[in-house]
Amino acid sequence: MVKKRIPVIAIFDVGKTNKKLFLFDEHYQIVFERTARFLETVDEDGDPCENIDSLRLSVFDSLHEVFRHTEFEIKAINFASYGASFVYLDQSGKPLTPLYNYLKSYPEPLTNELHASYGGVEQFSIDTASPALGSLNSGLQVFRLAKEKPDIYTQVKYAVHLPQYLSFLVTGQVFSDMTSIGCHTALWDFKQNDYHQWVRDIQLDQKLPPIVAGDEVFPAAFPGSPFKVGIGLHDSSSALIPYLLNFHEPFILISTGTWCISLNPFNQEPLTKQELTQDALFYMNYTGRPIKASRLFAGYEHEQQTQRIAQYFSISKTKFRHLEIDWNLIDEVKQKYDHATLEDFKLVDLAEFRDYEHAYHAFMLCLIQSQVESLSLILEEGNVSKIFVDGGFSNNDIYMNLLAKSYCKIEVYAASMAQATAIGAALVIHDHWNSQSIPSNIINLRYYRC
């Protein structure tokens, strides 16, 4: 008797450090996983960058490996990866340049030229919903190529973001996707709901492939391949998809890691100059709908300050991992730090504190007060009914309790979901590969009372 093969979707989740391949069954359980890490290479200036050749070969090697697992039947493939990275393809589909790093320093004269030509930095940033972030505004990378290397720029047939390049490797077709276009790229005019005028002025619009919806699929280029292929998604937008599909009342997702990114899919109010200067911006969901967002460097600061506290009190940083909230300590530190922020705590002399618990509670109070300031930029109080926290801080008892205490009229939940980014990329094309209904238990929630 022939054993029935398990229907699965293959998802490539490409981060800056780890490149992962997952196979999910129809119940969104991981049935296979592979992780790769590549050595970085350098571009022509000697700056570190992704090894695009290794990445391309890894996609094909990984697919060949899963094809050998005959217990699985691959129904579909999709991709999620970090944004702010362009691949420039020539007429034959080969990359013309290295995959430049979005942390690469950006020439100030070029930034000034672009901004000055289109109303100044404030107006340009408001129009494109993109704080001025240098190379992290991926559109500026293309502007730089056009200005500094016009001979290469003229050879560019298509400029595609990294998720769509990965899809192109399997389909042979090039597309643009709103989650990549709308992520602080400085390409999109959010008022006009179209590419910004500068894109047309350097004829970049002729090099950008057609925009298609993130839930569309296309056939694979391999002869006889029956599976469907998605066009790829920007990772932050992909991680939001499970929440959008499971919750329909207005909510905010705080995705915590090195950055704490607060996403409000139900707020499309235009950005103000003040909000831009405080690190608010727009993302896009896979249908092209704006998502108001704010960013806080809280995970990074947590790493720095716990290191400082641990060294001062001669303890291991693991002491902080399972520390539970002590409300008496919170009441005590509030007397001095009730309105202090992360920036303020950097200047605090740790000699003020009796022990590491005292210091850590003061630090977390400052962190939450900064988080509340960041959230206030996008919240629209009275409209939001739930706040979900995923990532590292969802497991921090002090963070979660203080956040809940700050929002007594909103339900606050710690949310956990294995591989949210990859699951989002699978869910967005669910109807094209999965015969089951979307499970209601993908997200595990833990409620925190005010």
Structural class: alpha/beta
Tell me the CATH architecture of the largest domain. 2-Layer Sandwich
The CATH topology assignment of the largest domain is Nucleotidyltransferase, domain 5
CATH superfamily of the largest domain: ATPase, nucleotide binding domain
For the report, how would you describe the main beta sheet? 7 strands, mixed
List the helices and strands and how they pair.
Layout: E1 6-14, E2 19-24, E3 30-36, E4 41-42, E5 48-49, H1 52-68, E6 72-81, E7 86-89, H2 108-117, H3 120-128, H4 138-148, H5 150-153, E8 158-161, H6 162-171, H7 178-181, E9 188-189, E10 194-195, H8 197-201, E11 217-219, E12 228-230, E13 233-234, H9 235-246, E14 251-256, E15 260-264, H10 273-277, E16 280-284, E17 290-296, H11 298-313, H12 327-337, H13 342-345, H14 356-376, E18 386-391, H15 397-406, E19 411-416, H16 420-427, E20 444-448
Please describe what this structure looks like.
- With 450 residues, the protein is an alpha/beta fold.
- It has 2 domains: 6-231, 2-Layer Sandwich (Nucleotidyltransferase, domain 5), CATH 3.30.420.40; 235-416, ATPase, nucleotide binding domain (Nucleotidyltransferase, domain 5).
- 35% of the residues lie in helices and 21% in strands.
- It has 16 helices and 20 strands.
- The protein has helices at residues 52-68, 108-117, 120-128, 138-148, 150-153, 162-171, 178-181, 197-201, 235-246, 273-277, 298-313, 327-337, 342-345, 356-376, 397-406, 420-427; strands spanning 6-14, 19-24, 30-36, 41-42, 48-49, 72-81, 86-89, 158-161, 188-189, 194-195, 217-219, 228-230, 233-234, 251-256, 260-264, 280-284, 290-296, 386-391, 411-416, 444-448.
- The strands form 5 sheets. Strands 1, 2, 3, 6, 11, 12 and 13 form a 7-stranded mixed β-sheet that branches. A 7-stranded mixed β-sheet has the order 16-17-15-14-18-19-20, with helices on both faces.
- β4 and β5 (48-49) form a beta hairpin.
- α2 packs across α3, α11 (298-313) runs antiparallel to α14 and α14 packs across α15.
- The longest helix has 21 residues, at 356-376.
- The chain is globular and about 70 Å long.
- The termini are far apart.
- The mean pLDDT is 93.
- Residues 9-230 form the Carbohydrate kinase FGGY N-terminal domain.
- Residues 249-431 form the Carbohydrate kinase FGGY C-terminal domain.
- One of its GO terms (cellular component) is cytosol.
